[in-house]
């Protein structure tokens, strides 16, 4: 990729956080911003990753996602037991 080229990718947005990824030269820039009612979007963290590491980053994120999904599947839901009250006649 040419050092003068910059490509912005679509951001991932929730109500309170935004994650933007852009490519600048030989770096991928990942920016985390949070929403503040008074200030708007405020940058929190920026991570610059060599583009040669993107495949490894993708694998690490995918492995984390698989682990989180497995944990969700193995969690036992809380079961409420309802006790019958005795009826006196």
Descriptive terms for the model:
single chain; 89 residues; alpha+beta; five-stranded antiparallel β-sheet; 1 helix; 24% helix; 38% strand; elongated
- The coarse overall form would be elongated
Global structural class: alpha+beta
Order of helices and strands: EEEEEH
Rg, nearest Å = 23 Å
| Tally of strands | 5
pLDDT under 50 segments (min length 5)?
none
Largest sheet: 5 strands, antiparallel
What is the arithmetic mean of pLDDT? 87
Question: Distance between termini?
Answer: 85 Å
What's the helical proportion of residues? 10-25%
Strand-residue fraction? 35-45%
Query: Total helix count?
Result: 1
Task: Describe the 3D structure.
This protein is α+β, with helices and mostly antiparallel strands. Helix content is 24%, strand content 38%. The protein contains 1 helix and 5 strands. Strands 1, 2, 3, 4 and 5 form a 5-stranded antiparallel beta sheet that branches. A hairpin with a 3-residue loop joins strand 4 and strand 5 (40-50). The protein is elongated and about 85 Å long. 1% of the residues are buried.
Lay out the secondary structure.
Blueprint: E1 6-8, E2 12-13, E3 17-24, E4 27-36, E5 40-50, H1 54-74
Antiparallel strand pairs: 1-3, 2-3, 3-4, 4-5
């Amino acid at each position: 990729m040419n050092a003068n080229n910059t490509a912005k990718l679509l951001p991932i947005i929730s109500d309170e956080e935004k994650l933007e990824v852009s490519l600048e030269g030989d770096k991928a820039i990942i920016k985390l911003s949070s929403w503040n009612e008074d200030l708007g979007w405020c940058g929190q963290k920026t991570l610059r990753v060599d583009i040669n590491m993107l495949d490894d980053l993708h694998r690490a994120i995918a492995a984390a996602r698989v682990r989180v999904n497995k944990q969700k599947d193995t969690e036992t839901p809380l079961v409420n037991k309802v006790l019958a009250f005795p009826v006196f006649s």
